[in-house]
Amino acid sequence: MPEGHSVHRIARQFERNIVGRRVSASSPQGRFAEGASILDGRSATQVRAVGKQMFLEFDDDLWLRVHLGMYGAWDFAGEIQVDPTIASANGRIGQTNQRGTDLPPIFDGAGENSLSSIGAPRRARVNVRMSEQTRGLGDAADEWPPPVVGQVRLRLLTEMTCADLRGPTACQLQSPDEVAATVAKLGPDPLVDDSAQGEERFVSVVRRKPTPIGLLLMDQSVVSGIGNVYRAELLFRANLDPHTPGRDVPDDVVRALWRDWVRLLAIGVETGQMMTMDDLDPEAYRLAMAHRDDRHWVYHRAGLPCRVCGTSIVLEEMAARKLYWCPTCQV
């Protein structure tokens, strides 16, 4: 499932390439035909990301709400202007021991930090037409607009940029009041809410819940944006047993979880990758940025030795989701 950093990156793509422009909207798949007909010909006016959901505003206070869910993704094609913050992510964002080095951009084989497709992993990517802002990001596409590939729920097309939505859990039109009601149900997002206020909201909820902390971190009403990967990594970095009831987690540990999430989310947005390991030398950092298996402490490492203590990493199901953790370090 795409996690919070991906949705914030998607919002940045829309801010630079769709907002302020009139769009042609269609639903090649047909499942959003009525909504697309309402959007067609309107101009996008602003975009918001909150946790795992994105809200794109159009003329006359009309909003498009998209929740990618497990399998959703946005594919971008055309002349894509890169967000300067994202463009500067050259393999050293968030690594204090890397600043001052001159490493080239690193793109992993799974395309997690791809500028042409953001969301659930895909085997095939839509080509990006070359422009001054996208040199080196892909091969030129000969056909414009690009042909529809697969089940596209919604296509938003400007004169220069195409955004195709596939496989979302939610794709619906909302009024401003409906958007406000949706956001009100979500927990704090470090990139949206005041950090101090968000921390207090998070701590107050967690500290009164008997629910295991491993479930609370995945509850979007408790905290926004955390998915399976960040859940496992945050708990390991805190040396915290996933089964500990929230109310039994010490106050300082809950606060440390929030502050670590603030840091990791920022790194994820800037690099496009869920980098959760610290203090890597330049070569180790290059490998970690290029390969998912080298950038996590416990996630996707079932049966492998813990990077700290050597104990085999455990894989179990918690509320029908895979949970990776170290039974020695996390006690």
TrEMBL record:
Keyword Transcription: no
CDD domains reported in the protein's UniProt record: AcNei1_N
Enzyme class: lyase
EC number: 4.2.99.18
Residue span(s) of domain Formamidopyrimidine-DNA glycosylase catalytic: 2-89
Organism domain of life: Bacteria
Pfam family, one: Fapy_DNA_glyco
Entry cofactors: Zn(2+)
Keywords in alphabetical order: DNA damage, DNA repair, DNA-binding, Glycosidase, Hydrolase, Lyase, Metal-binding, Multifunctional enzyme, Zinc, Zinc-finger
The family this protein is said to belong to: Belongs to the FPG family.
Protein name: DNA-(apurinic or apyrimidinic site) lyase
Organism for this UniProt entry: Microbacterium memoriense
